[in-house]
Specification:
The protein is α+β, with helices and mostly antiparallel strands and about 450 residues long. It has helices spanning about 5, 20-25, 50-60, 115-120, 140-145, 150-155, 190-195, 230-240, 250-260, 285-300, 315-325, 325-330, 345-360, 390-410, 435-450; strands at about 15-20, 40-45, 65-70, 85-90, 95-100, 105, 125, 160-170, 175, 200-210, 210-215, 220-225, 245-250, 275-280, 305-310, 335-340, 365-370, 375-380. The relative contact order is 0.12. InterPro entries: FAD-bd_oxidored_4_C, FAD-bd_PCMH, FAD-bd_PCMH-like_sf, FAD-bd_PCMH_sub1, FAD-bd_PCMH_sub2, FAD-linked_Oxase-like_C, FAD-oxidored/transferase_4, Oxid_FAD_bind_N.
Length: about 450
């Protein structure tokens, strides 16, 4: 090891430092597959004080630090490509103080999302931010990307559930932000700068998370849909006439890949270009009858061609798999992903325009759509053709990114709805953010990270 790396042993134990090639490759990456990993070391802090010492060491030696959680990100935000030191929060994974009165829990950043959900359940409470990677994603990463997921329609984003943060800035300062106060009208709420900052301002070492009352029983409907306009009409009916929790859309191509990969039976006999999954609260028989009435109205109008409603928790879980197993079913094709958003009302014309762009650009390639239509968030997955190298595939996809993001800009949307900016979207940030905004963001980073050591080269 270099003298600088050897110096880590002055404040960390040897078992908190890894420099072997296997560890560098494993902890130096996330779920993106298109970057060459070049980490110089992996460190595992146990306390806020450890993180402070790391930052001071990094400033002294002018070495960059990369935060690493569950490594489930899709933007390259947790990737080490320039010899950086990766700071893994795997070993800062304690669930600490719980307040039944405040309905909050203090956690360390390495707590896995599913572990927090299970803890909440043990207290007869509920942590509602949910998505396919709950079994491996970590809360520090969720906060740093303001993770959304499948229940945003009802429960909002991660931001809405963070009551307080303890962070270590790039200057080595420890900030305790908001102290879990419900009301705090004392100037800028710096907590919200760190939520979604992808570790570029500092590292989260503790978070106070709000929990919710347990949800009522749910029913899940899967519906075959005649077209995009029908999707939004169905959404409007369910949104205004039921207690809608989630509203998801996926294409026939996405469903086909899930059925091939999982062996699940098709949900419906009728085939359609698009399918919708809706989850609604059913507190009593009247709620269930009301949901069925909305479904029947959609059938009568011709918006829904066929559909089914869950009759058990097991069946509801199976229905969710048609949507949640899409990413895993596509993984073997090394898909090029885009995660974009517009306001909900603009989804149909936006998708029409985007479909024309993609059809012209990829006339022989398979493009798979799915998304959280209830919050205007769409996921585009372009499958790598057989025989095409990874490098050539990415090069071609990046060319079309410009056309995709021009369409996003036309509709005043976001080039990254929930995956973050990281490395993959950094050069396209100006399609969503103005030059003035980007300059302000650079100024904010300079204040919190004067030596540019906190996840440099990401976001801006």
């Amino acid at each position: 090891m270099s003298p600088a790396l050897l110096e880590l042993e002055s404040f960390l134990k040897k078992e908190q430092i890894k420099t072997d090639e296997e560890s560098l490759k494993y902890w130096g990456k996330d779920w993106t597959t298109y970057f060459d990993i070049k980490a110089s070391a992996i460190v595992f802090p146990h306390t806020t004080e450890n993180v402070v010492d790391l930052v001071k060491w990094a400033r002294k030696n002018k070495i960059a630090l990369i935060p690493s959680g569950g490594r489930t990100g899709l933007s390259g935000a947790a990737v080490a490509t320039q010899g950086e030191v990766v700071v893994s929060f795997d070993q800062m994974n304690k669930i600490k103080d719980f307040s039944p009165v405040d309905q909050t829990v203090i956690i360390e950043p390495g707590v896995v999302t599913e572990a927090l959900q299970e803890f909440a359940h043990s207290k007869q409470l509920f942590y509602p931010v949910d998505f396919a990677a709950v079994g491996s994603s970590q809360m520090g990463g969720n906060i740093s990307t303001n993770a959304g997921g499948i229940k945003v329609v009802r429960y909002g984003l991660t931001r809405d559930w963070v009551a307080a943060l303890t962070v270590v800035t790039g200057a080595g300062d420890v900030l305790e932000l908001n102290n879990a106060l419900v009301k705090n009208a004392t100037g800028y709420d710096l907590r919200h700068l760190f939520i979604g900052a992808e570790g570029t301002l500092g590292f989260i070492t503790e978070a106070t998370i709000k929990l919710a009352p347990n949800p009522p029983p749910m029913k899940v409907l899967v519906m075959a849909v005649s077209g995009l306009d029908a999707v939004m009409k169905i959404f409007a009916e369910f949104k205004t006439k039921t207690s809608l929790v989630a509203f998801e859309m996926f294409s026939d191509k996405a469903l086909k890949r899930v059925l091939e990969n999982t062996g699940l039976p098709a949900p419906l006999e009728t085939q359609a270009p698009f399918y919708v999954l809706a989850e609604v609260e059913t507190r009593n028989d009247q709620d269930e009858e009301h949901a069925l009435g909305v479904f029947e109205k959609c059938l009568e109008e011709g918006w829904v061609l066929d559909g089914v409603i869950s009759q058990s928790d097991v069946q509801a879980t199976t229905f969710w798999r048609y949507r949640e197993d899409i990413s895993e079913s596509l993984a073997k094709y090394s898909p090029y992903k885009n995660d974009i958003a517009v306001t909900i009302s603009k989804v149909p014309p936006f998708m029409d325009d985007l479909d024309k762009v993609l059809s012209q650009a990829y006339p022989t390639w398979e493009v798979v759509w799915f998304g959280h239509i209830g919050d205007g968030n769409l996921h585009i997955n372009i499958l790598r053709p057989d025989g095409m190298s990874k490098e050539e595939f990415v090069k071609e996809c990046r060319k079309v990114d410009v056309m995709v993001f021009e369409t996003v800009k036309k509709y005043k949307g976001s080039i990254s709805a929930e995956h973050g900016v990281g490395l993959t979207k950094k050069s396209f940030l100006n399609y969503t953010r103005s030059e003035a905004e980007i300059e302000i963001m650079k100024g904010i980073k300079k204040v919190f990270d004067p030596d540019n050591i906190m996840n440099p080269g990401k976001v801006i």
